[in-house]
Design a protein that fits this description.
The complex is a heterodimer of chains A (173) and B (311). By secondary structure, chain A is α/β, with parallel strands linked by helices. Chain A has helices at 7-24, 40-54, 106-116, 162-165; strands at residues 2-5, 31-36, 61-65, 94-102, 123-133, 144-150, 157-160, 169-172. In chain A, the strands form two sheets. A five-stranded parallel β-sheet of chain A has the order 3-2-4-5-6. Chain A has a three-stranded antiparallel β-sheet with strand order 1-8-7. In chain A, strand 2 (31-36), helix 2 (40-54) and strand 3 form a beta-alpha-beta unit. In chain B, helix 6 (169-180) links the parallel strand 5 and strand 6 (184-188). By secondary structure, chain B is an alpha/beta fold. In chain B, strands 7-6-5-8-9 form a five-stranded parallel β-sheet, with helices on both faces. In chain B, strands 2-1-3-4 form a four-stranded parallel β-sheet, with helices on both faces. Chain B is globular and about 55 Å long. The chains are: A alpha/beta (173), B alpha/beta (311). At the A-B interface, helix 3 of A face helix 1 and helix 12 of B.
């Protein structure tokens, strides 16, 4: 087991991602943030918390998107759906999708499909905590990256969060 | 995460966990139905045949809509105008349809047990959309979903099922399901329409007085008087039935609480339910219809997946 980000590095990385998103969407007027269920919402919750410290909290539009019904592996295994909560329109908005690990790209492919069910955004960007390079199965890349790592297929990236696991750390297993 | 059954033939075969899973999945599908684009690609490569040997409006439309919202390919079969009138057997009809590479069958039949018979002989997943006087599982599930949505729970809920219990598959599915989920059940209606041993067989309360039943319950699930199944004379006239067991606003207002009114449809207006009660705020009959699509999407979704290549 190798630590990719310890608690302090993780906090700094999340702060940086929040700042980078804000840098490109200064007043957030036409921007919405969407966390991917189930694991992406832990990182999106934290990024949104960072951003809300920098701009008036009511300006930050934040939703949660479940992609279960859009997965391409339903024939292999059935997944329980999580809750989707997008209480605003995404029509003509800049959407920033937030997830924890970018690996094959299939989750993000499903997320893009799911997102289109809510309307036609002006632009979609992707914010990722950990980018596992060289393992993509679809042509997808992130706009904001917390940390890029090189890993082999047999390895696993695990992200621990305080609310869920009692500690905050990213490890490579 | 998987149902414990391969087919949805009746609530009797489901576990409490199965029911919970279907209702929870339906909650998420209901959210999908509120979106601007009310469609997901989950069953994009699945073909479903709707085999309706008996008349139906809302169940057939509801299933068809659920299938389309899941992006499945659908074929509709109605017995009238088909080779059934030339004497083709049920099994032959279905085998012919399955030869066209169909993955799932939704079946409504006037004979109790028809879908169970098919399940023994064909490989496709079968959903019972009502068989004779046996069960109507998706109606039971959507009724439970609507109760849970309206009142927040099923456990400990007092539900009165009122009317023609004897001929009602909806009543059977409701009793099985609500008992499994910990609700209290009462059946109410004229003695001639309530099976004699129902109290012993299902451990339910029996009440012959409508007002007493309404005073007891939180939810009144009012059943349709099935005119097409009344071969014997079980009550003297519709007028007499409506006087003794018809629910109207005046009766509801005379109770010291607000009872939720449900009805599986179609309503015989002025017989089991007066218009002023059926269209009142206490009635959630149209919500039941809306929830039906979400519940059927959940059932289809959960029966379709995780089985490798079908057929």
């Amino acid at each position: 087991m190798k630590t990719v980000l310890n608690e302090q590095q993780l906090a700094i990385t999340i702060k940086r991602l929040g700042h980078q998103i804000l840098e490109n969407h200064v007043n957030l007027e036409n921007t919405v943030l969407i966390g991917i269920q189930p694991r992406g919402i832990f990182v999106s919750d934290q990024i949104v918390r960072e951003i809300r410290e920098l701009v008036p909290a009511n300006l930050v539009k934040y939703g949660k998107l479940d992609i279960t019904f859009y997965r391409d592996d339903i024939r292999n295994s059935l997944q329980s759906p999580n809750h989707t909560d997008i209480p605003f329109s995404i029509e003509n908005k800049n959407v920033v999708i937030i997830d924890d690990v970018l690996y094959t790209g299939r989750t993000i492919r499903a997320a893009l499909d799911a997102l289109m069910g809510f309307g036609r955004p002006a632009k979609v960007e992707l914010c990722i905590l950990i980018d596992r390079r060289f393992s993509r199965q679809l042509p997808i890349q992130a706009d904001y990256v917390g940390k890029s790592i090189d890993s082999i297929i047999s390895q696993k990236v695990k992200v621990f969060w305080k609310e869920r696991d009692g500690k905050e750390e990213v490890v490579l297993l | 995460m998987q149902l414990s059954v391969k087919h949805l033939l009746g609530i009797r075969d489901l576990t409490r966990q199965d029911i919970q899973l279907i209702l929870d999945t339906a909650t998420e599908f209901k959210e999908v139905l509120q979106r601007p684009i009310k469609k997901v690609p989950s069953l994009r490569d699945v073909t479903i045949v709707n085999l309706f040997y008996e008349n139906s409006t809302r169940t057939r439309i509801s299933f068809e809509l659920a299938e389309k919202r899941l992006s499945a390919d659908t074929i509709n079969f109605t017995a009238s105008g088909s080779s059934v009138s030339k004497g083709e057997t049920l099994l032959d009809t279905v085998n012919n349809i399955l030869s066209m590479k169909v993955d799932m069958v939704v079946m409504r039949h006037s004979a109790s047990g028809a879908p169970h018979f098919l399940a023994k002989h064909i490989p496709a997943a079968i959903i019972n959309a009502g068989d004779g006087i046996n069960e109507h599982p998706t109606q039971g599930l959507l009724d439970a979903f609507s109760m849970r949505e309206k009142l927040g729970k099923l456990e400990g809920l007092k539900v009165a099922i009122i009317g023609d219990i004897m001929h009602s598959r909806v009543a059977m599915s409701n009793i099985y399901l609500l008992k499994k989920m910990g609700a209290e059940i009462m059946v109410a209606g004229p003695p001639t329409l309530i099976p004699k041993y129902i109290k012993e067989a299902f451990d339910v309360r029996v009440e012959y007085n409508l007002k007493k039943a309404l005073e007891w319950c939180d939810v009144a699930n009012v059943l349709r008087i099935q005119l097409e199944r009344q071969n014997q004379v079980l009550f003297s006239s519709l007028r007499e039935y409506s006087l003794a067991y018809g629910i109207n606003k005046r009766l509801l207002d005379s109770l010291n609480k607000e009872v939720v009114i449900m009805h599986p449809g179609p309503i015989n207006r002025g017989v089991e339910l007066d218009s002023d009660a059926a269209d009142s705020k206490q009635a959630i009959i149209l919500q039941q219809v809306e929830n039906g699509v979400a519940v059927r999407m959940a059932a289809l979704y959960l029966l379709s997946g995780g089985r490798g290549t079908m057929n």
